[in-house]
């Protein structure tokens, strides 16, 4: 697969020059170009091959101290983009210029290896065949993709940095209909060098085996095992609480907790931007990313910031200024949050539960900054005396993230990537579990 390299010009230097000639004191150009070729399977069969290419450019400038941002996709007239940014700046209040200085071009190494579409097709067919050999009645949907994205950022203070990132994705979803009972199990993987579809297949087969029988859920305060897929129930809120912007706005409950214990002593959490399939060498402001130790053995160590928030908090940027979208201003965001694994396999964690619940997939949004949550268990299993005895249905779990963090009994050694979060399974002392009245009738 060809790398979507940005052409040397692509209006970047021209945009900067035009912005400065139009009266802007400072300016930056952020460009992104991607090439993706997904392979799609539906109802156990190859459905289609696709190819999509996108290109976007964002111009941010300051004229008379007022910021302006304009975005274009595809072909763009440089002067039109400059005029739009200038017009928008006139509507904004003055603010500090937040640009990363640079003295020479930063040519970061490209990341990842491409895989041919033909190889992805074979991989998808083999994965579906293995699942259906053991469960011929299921319907499989799969998407495998090789995507290459090139990022370039230049500004009027001499910064010029870029790199190309090639990632491989494999996602498989299985539907199993048994009379009135519907079950959906999914799993996936993102890698840089090569995919291990067999690992995805084994994870799905294991969950299908666990779901052979439907059983009553335990009710009340119940010990919970969150698999790596479900652990985001905790980590999404943790990332928000560690966000320097939330700290500056006094919205984070940890704003005044630096150096204090905020979780179980079993928990250590850090950012490692140079590890795994979601790594990146610099943030969307051009600041090099770096490792950050955020929580060490339960003790809060630091927050993460972009240039603006770092200046307001007096700590400087931690290299965490990212754009939620091309048309957004940089804001604090983590890259590659990694939870330090514990000891013991998933089986070892299960053995710690006399009567508990395994949560593997949840429905609905998780907790916000308050930490309170009440979610439906999309895929969960009951554990008795360390053994999974069947799947539970119509079950809800409620609690508070900050309370749960202090009740982490154990973390497994089975850490894996769940999006840009590397997390193991973990056991919580107890969450509130309820079931609908319908449960006793259906099961």
Shape: globular
- Rg, please? 24 Å
Distance between the termini: 50 Å
Low-pLDDT runs = 5-10, 439-443
Strands, total number: 23
Strand content: 35-45%
| Largest sheet geometry | 8 strands, mixed
Number of helices: 10
Mean pLDDT across all residues, rounded?
92
Q: What portion of residues is helical?
A: 10-25%
Question: How would you characterize this protein structure?
Answer:
With 443 residues, this protein is of the alpha+beta class. It contains ten helices and 23 strands. Strands 1, 2, 3, 4, 5, 6, 7 and 8 form an eight-stranded mixed β-sheet that branches. A six-stranded mixed β-sheet has the order 12-11-10-15-22-21, with helices on one face. Strands 9-16-17-19-23 form a five-stranded mixed beta barrel. Helix 1 packs across helix 2 and helix 3 packs parallel to helix 4. The chain starts with 11 loop residues before the first helix and ends with a helix.
What are the defining features of this structure?
single chain; 443 residues; eight-stranded mixed beta sheet; six-stranded mixed beta sheet; 23 strands; 20% helix; globular; disordered C terminus
What's the SSE blueprint?
Layout: H1 12-21, E1 26-42, E2 45-49, E3 52-63, E4 66-73, H2 78-89, E5 106-107, H3 117-134, E6 139-155, E7 160-178, E8 181-191, H4 197-210, E9 220-226, H5 232-241, H6 244-248, E10 269-271, E11 292-296, E12 299-300, H7 307-313, E13 321-322, E14 331-332, E15 337-339, H8 346-350, E16 355-363, E17 372-384, E18 387-392, E19 395-400, H9 401-405, E20 408-411, E21 416-418, E22 421-423, E23 426-435, H10 439-442
Parallel strand pairs: 5-7, 9-16, 15-22
Antiparallel strand pairs: 1-2, 1-3, 1-6, 3-4, 6-7, 7-8, 9-23, 10-11, 10-15, 11-12, 13-14, 16-17, 17-18, 17-19, 19-23, 20-23, 21-22
């Amino acid at each position: 697969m060809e790398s979507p390299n940005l052409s040397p010009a692509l209006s970047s230097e021209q945009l900067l020059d035009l912005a400065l000639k139009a009266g802007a004191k400072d300016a930056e150009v952020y460009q992104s170009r991607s090439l993706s070729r997904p392979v799609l399977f539906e109802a156990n069969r190859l459905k289609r091959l696709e190819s999509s290419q996108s290109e976007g450019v964002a111009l941010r400038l300051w004229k008379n101290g007022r910021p302006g941002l304009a975005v274009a996709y595809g072909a763009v007239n440089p002067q039109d983009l400059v005029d739009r940014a200038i017009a928008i700046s006139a509507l904004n209040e003055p603010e500090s210029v937040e640009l990363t200085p640079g003295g020479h071009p930063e040519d970061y190494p490209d990341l990842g290896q491409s895989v041919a579409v033909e190889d992805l097709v074979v991989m998808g067919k083999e994965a579906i065949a293995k699942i259906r050999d053991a469960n011929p009645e299921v319907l499989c949907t799969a998407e495998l993709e090789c995507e290459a994205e090139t990022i370039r950022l230049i500004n009027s203070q001499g910064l010029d940095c870029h790199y190309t990132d090639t990632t491989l994705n494999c996602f498989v979803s299985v539907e199993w209909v048994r009379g009135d009972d519907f079950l959906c199990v999914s799993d996936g993987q993102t890698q840089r060098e090569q995919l291990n579809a067999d690992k995805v297949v084994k994870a799905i087969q294991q969950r299908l085996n666990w779901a052979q029988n439907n059983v009553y859920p335990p009710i009340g305060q119940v010990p919970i095992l969150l698999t790596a897929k479900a652990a985001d129930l905790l980590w999404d809120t943790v990332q928000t609480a560690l966000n320097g912007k939330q700290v500056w706005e006094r919205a984070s409950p940890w704003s005044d907790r630096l150096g204090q214990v905020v979780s179980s002593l079993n928990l250590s959490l850090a950012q490692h931007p140079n590890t795994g399939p979601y790594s990146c060498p610099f943030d969307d402001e051009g600041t090099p990313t770096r490792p950050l130790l955020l929580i060490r053995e339960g003790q809060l160590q630091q927050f993460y910031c972009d240039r603006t928030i770092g200046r307001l908090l007096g700590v400087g940027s931690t290299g965490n200024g990212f754009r939620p979208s091309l048309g957004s201003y940089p804001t604090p965001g983590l890259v590659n949050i990694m939870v330090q694994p514990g000891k013991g396999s998933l089986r070892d964690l299960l053995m710690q539960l006399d009567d508990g619940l395994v949560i593997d997939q949840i429905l609905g949004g998780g907790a916000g900054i308050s930490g309170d949550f009440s979610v439906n268990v999309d895929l969960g299993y009951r554990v008795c005396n360390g053994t999974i005895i069947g799947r539970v249905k119509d079950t809800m779990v409620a609690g508070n993230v900050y309370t749960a963090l202090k009740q982490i009994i154990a973390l497994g050694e089975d850490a894996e990537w769940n999006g840009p979060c590397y997390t193991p399974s973990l056991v919580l002392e107890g969450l509130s579990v309820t079931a609908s009245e319908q449960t006793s009738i259906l099961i």
